From TrEMBL:
PANTHER family attached to this UniProt entry: ARGININOSUCCINATE LYASE
Localization terms from the record: Cytoplasm
Amino acid composition bias (Basic and acidic residues), ranges on this chain: 440-449
GO molecular function terms attached to this record: argininosuccinate lyase activity
Protein known as: Argininosuccinate lyase
The species this protein was found in: Candidatus Methanocrinis natronophilus
Gene3D superfamilies assigned: Fumarase/aspartase (C-terminal domain) (1.10.40.30), Fumarase/aspartase (Central domain) (1.20.200.10), Fumarase/aspartase (N-terminal domain) (1.10.275.10)
Length: 477
């Protein structure tokens, strides 16, 4: 951009800094060189530059390093200037039939694609860690909560698998967004495409894209792919923060259900006894940062007229911040979950407190005496007011008052009550699809493990396809 700064004295420096994207462009430096190479290969194949020009320009690109780039408002300008400094005027042929508008959109998609592949693998790792811990704990009885009040006994496996399933949906969302990220805008030029006889499908293929963002106006002006990646990340962070919150809560002395490995905690500078779950707290806190990135990017993109507007540049740093924060949080949680010590005895001891077996008493009353569930609910509700473990006399008394019968006369006696009060038997009874009974969580854990392995293979395969195409491109001389 030409600065008419002379007249305005010192302000030209401020303007340059204001419009510069150089800091965030670090993320797309490598991608930009790849885009340059793909474009050059295509220009050569279409006879728009000669083989000699191609070789000279590519040789010039070979030695360009980010740290040694000179000035320029963005990385595209700086690379082109450096190229021309190295190979002379022939370097100026590189920008034939393209614009920084399609160039930058292509670069962001390439760099984001790599980030998404990394994030998907990391989300898989976290889900896997949860499933592994679940498999070790299919028999660990724990209190289950609703409203953060003791509700019904469940198992640690059931609880951890719930988190794993949420993360597996996050994986699917990321995978889905990947399919729209990995499309090539290259060749759209400024927005109106170009009169040069270029081949967009060829550059897309060289860069391992799965297709085009076809309409050249759409191609340069949309950042919806980035919004999608950020919203998938924000939703993922909602799930991550829920897990983090429980690690925090469960490691308080009030709960005492889990102990995080020292690596994931820190102590207080003043209170030597403290072991604070800082990493989990920061996952919770950084969730806000990711939301902020998404909301900033949404707001920047809102109501932009066609086609390219410089506002778009302002969205990109939010993308990198949002994705890198998400990736770091996921990795930390994987370590914290894998190394956490669950206090299974304490969990089991807590599992029957707060009359959390009440539902099972009502359920077994229904099964044994055939009274309607609502009546059973009323009877057991009356017992709950007593505040301590009910006896069969309590039950008979309440049932007589409410429904004019004695459960012990209808086959629900001392033994049936004791069974219903046992958290372990509560859990064993809940063996239907998706429930906490050990056989069912074992089935779910095995199923999830298999799907996670499949997802891992899928990511590896996608990464392999991208890596080999890019390696081949780097070899083209
Ligand atoms: N740095 C710019 C961005 O991130 C690159 C495109 C610049 N295009 C332009 N017409 N000034 O969007």
């Amino acid at each position: 951009m030409l600065l008419r700064g002379e007249r305005l004295g010192g302000i030209s420096g401020d303007v340059l800094e204001f419009i510069s994207s150089r800091e965030a462009d670090r993320q797309i430096f490598e991608a930009d060189l790849l885009v340059d190479r793909a474009h050059l290969v295509m220009l050569k194949e279409r006879g728009l530059i000669t083989a000699e020009e191609f070789s000279e320009i590519v040789a010039g690109l070979d030695g360009i390093e980010m740290a040694r780039l000179g000035e320029g408002e963005d990385v595209h300008e700086a690379i082109e200037a450096e190229l021309i400094a190295r190979v002379g005027a022939v370097g100026g042929r590189m920008h034939t039939g393209r614009s920084r508008n399609d160039e930058v959109a292509t670069c962001i998609r390439i760099a984001l694609r790599g980030e998404l592949l990394g994030l998907m693998a990391e989300v898989n790792d976290l889900a896997e860690a949860l499933v592994e811990r679940a498999a070790e704990n299919d028999d660990s009885i724990i209190p289950g909560f609703t409203h953060l009040q003791h509700a019904q006994p469940t198992t640690l496996a059931h609880h951890l698998l719930a988190h794993a399933d949420a993360l597996m949906r996050d994986f699917e969302r990321l995978l889905d967004s990947y399919q729209r990220v990995n499309r090539s805008p290259l060749g759209a030029a400024a927005f109106a495409s170009t009169g040069f006889d270029i081949d967009r499908a060829r550059t897309a293929e060289l860069l391992a894209f799965d297709g085009l963002v076809e309409n050249s106006m759409d191609a340069v002006s949309t950042r919806d792919f980035l919004l999608e990646a950020l919203s998938s990340s924000a939703i993922l962070m909602v799930n991550a923060s829920r897990l983090a919150e429980e690690l925090i809560l469960w490691s308080t002395s009030e709960f005492g259900y889990v102990e995080l490995d020292d690596l994931f905690t820190s102590t207080s500078s003043i209170m030597p006894q403290k072991k604070n779950p800082d990493t989990a707290e920061l996952v919770r806190g950084k969730t806000g940062t990711v939301f902020g990135s998404l909301v900033a990017a949404l707001a920047i993109n809102k109501a932009l007229p066609m086609s390219y507007n410089r506002d778009l540049q302002e969205a990109t740093p939010n993308l990198w911040r949002g994705i890198s924060t998400t990736r770091a949080a996921v990795r930390i949680l994987t370590g914290a979950v894998s190394s956490a010590k669950f206090r299974t005895e304490r969990l089991e001891a807590a599992s029957g407190t707060g009359f959390s077996t009440a539902t099972e008493i009502a359920d077994s009353l229904v099964r044994k005496t055939k009274i309607p569930f609502r009546t059973a609910h009323q009877i057991v509700g009356a017992l709950a007011a007593k505040g301590e473990t009910p006896t069969i006399d309590d039950l008979d008394g309440a049932a007589e008052r409410i429904a004019k019968f004695k459960p012990s006369d209808r086959g629900f006696g001392r033994e049936e009550l004791a069974a219903a009060l046992d958290p372990r038997r509560n859990v064993a009874a809940r063996s239907r699809t998706g429930g906490p009974a050990p056989a069912e969580t074992r089935r779910m854990a095995a199923d999830r493990k298999r799907r996670i392995e499949e997802n891992d293979r899928l990511v590896e395969e996608m990464r392999g396809r991208v890596d080999s195409a890019l390696a081949a491109l780097r070899e083209m001389r």
